[in-house]
Write a structure and sequence with these properties.
2 copies of one chain form a homodimer.
Chain A: E1 2-6, H1 15-28, E2 31-36, H2 38-47, E3 56-60, H3 74-77, H4 82-91, E4 97-100, H5 104-115, E5 125-126, E6 129-132, E7 135-140, H6 150-167, E8 174-178, H7 189-203, E9 208-213, H8 215-219, E10 225-227, H9 230-255, H10 259-267, H11 269-279, H12 281-284, E11 286-290, E12 296-299, H13 305-320, H14 323-329, H15 343-346
Helix pairs in contact in A: 1-2, 1-13, 4-5, 6-7
Amino acid sequence: MKIILDAMGGDNAPLEIVKGALQAHRDFGVDIVLTGREEDIRQAAAQCGETLPEGLTIRHCTETIEMCDDPALACRRKKDASMTVGLQMLRAGEGDAFISAGSTGALLSGATLLVKRVRGIRRAAMAPLIPTAGGDAVLVDCGANIDCTPEYLLQFAYIGNFYARHALKLERPRVALLNIGAEESKGMALQKEAYALLQEAGEAGHLNFIGNIEAKDALKGGADVIVADGFSGNVMLKTIEGVGSFLKVKLKDIFFKNALTKFAALLVKDGVTDIRDTLDPNERGATPFLGIAKPVLKAHGSSNARAIRNAVRAAIACAESSLEQEIAEHITLMQTGERTAGEKEAAPKENG
Amino acid sequence: MKIILDAMGGDNAPLEIVKGALQAHRDFGVDIVLTGREEDIRQAAAQCGETLPEGLTIRHCTETIEMCDDPALACRRKKDASMTVGLQMLRAGEGDAFISAGSTGALLSGATLLVKRVRGIRRAAMAPLIPTAGGDAVLVDCGANIDCTPEYLLQFAYIGNFYARHALKLERPRVALLNIGAEESKGMALQKEAYALLQEAGEAGHLNFIGNIEAKDALKGGADVIVADGFSGNVMLKTIEGVGSFLKVKLKDIFFKNALTKFAALLVKDGVTDIRDTLDPNERGATPFLGIAKPVLKAHGSSNARAIRNAVRAAIACAESSLEQEIAEHITLMQTGERTAGEKEAAPKENG
């Protein structure tokens, strides 16, 4: 197993990326190739007081994709960027999965352009695991696709379902459609039409579709796969993060009030750390782009070493699953014959 | 000041409604008229061990709008329902504001039909106060309008702005558009077009428009008025509620673990109660329908007595403001000349 890791992506690159790679290599015994400027990577390792061990190698490249680069063109223009080179390596079979903490848009475009989508998949989707009172759930999509069609949502449901089976170890994940009420008639035209497609898939026994779900009930643990257009999925994800960081501040205020509350903090430290971790994107490590022909994962832009280590763990799990094959085998179930405006343009990007 | 209160709406009616009315009457010294079945209301008061004091009266009516009633038709069909009668009384000037914990859809339709919108306002919007790290913010809309046009969002921004000036006591509230990134180019066509309208209003000095905002940054306290279409606004609101109840469960687990953690709980009790209250819809009391010609407020369906008491407090604040007049005076700023499919149908509902 070899994981390709973009050493130059994210707010804390390359130091935290290299540090995370060292940790992951130790913890999971997996080979890692770091893409990026060799000098910078070696310097980062030196800052960690280490030299790169066997199994941790560098693929030198000179460019870096910046947040200001046009996401749609970044990987086309910067052919020697750490992200572009990593994606090319993945495509060529020189690794089993690719992780970057760099620009989400550039990574999505680059993955679609270079690694390509599974044939028949309309759009790749970002599928983070989100915390709920009933354990983790898959939220798909959470921002890769802003303008969605009902067929996209049907595909998100299937690929989310396959992913949840691996990631959450569930036989028949409960698939629900994010909506503003449980009734079939709720939502915009998009949700109503997607509901009909999902219900059909449920009745045919292809999905365990349990209907619409409100964000509130999803967070109570009401579903294992939450299907959403990228806009509302993103609003949900960012709200979870926002409330999480809001409460972190509030809890700090409570516990740092005086000597007694500081003492109380000591007594419940483990539990509070546990809550904080549950809501911390760094602990979740990385989000896969489902629907891409090989595993490509996006680590949080603010990833620290621990996040990168956890991202490697997530990438290993993705690489060990046969997710892409499973999607390919079931693709006819996910096609409605819907023709979209972008279809002509999208077709050549599919994996031939 | 006289507040009209639907005694029959919500999961805990009439007991908690009557109990809340008694508390509000005591706490705020305001007159309250309860609409509903006289016998049921008197019985509820008796259960509270009280008889209705002077200033707390009943307008007897025989029907109740149920959750299964068609929201669009409920107030038309049930003319003697507690909600319909309350709205009619408000329209006739027999009270200064109306509160119901009953069906949101029926209340919105009924308010639009009977009390009517301020002339020129396209759609009434629900505008709850949401908790942020920087204090409360107004979220508008949060579910009344699923399919929005850019002009609706412009109007939500203005009415949210006027409301925030009263409710948050701010001179120039920071108005932001809920989006999936801060850049102008983010979002669907709706957000892009609304952005242009809002920017224009900002440049003309009519609004303190600060641009797009992500849900995460809004929860950090980045804006005072968060403008959203009803679908994504609802997802945001319900996610806040969901994370809140998720954390309530988690905190309970932490503090009830053993004798030491229970002791810790005692030491930080006030702080934890404070956090819980911040995220509890019952504490916020009620959400006004902005754009209706007189104050109509929706209390949470699961309102308890405390929520109803707080709803009365919110209704008093709305009735004391000159919000509707302010909206009417600035209506030309909120009109883009956009013609929508629903316009013909909507026009007769406006306040002539």
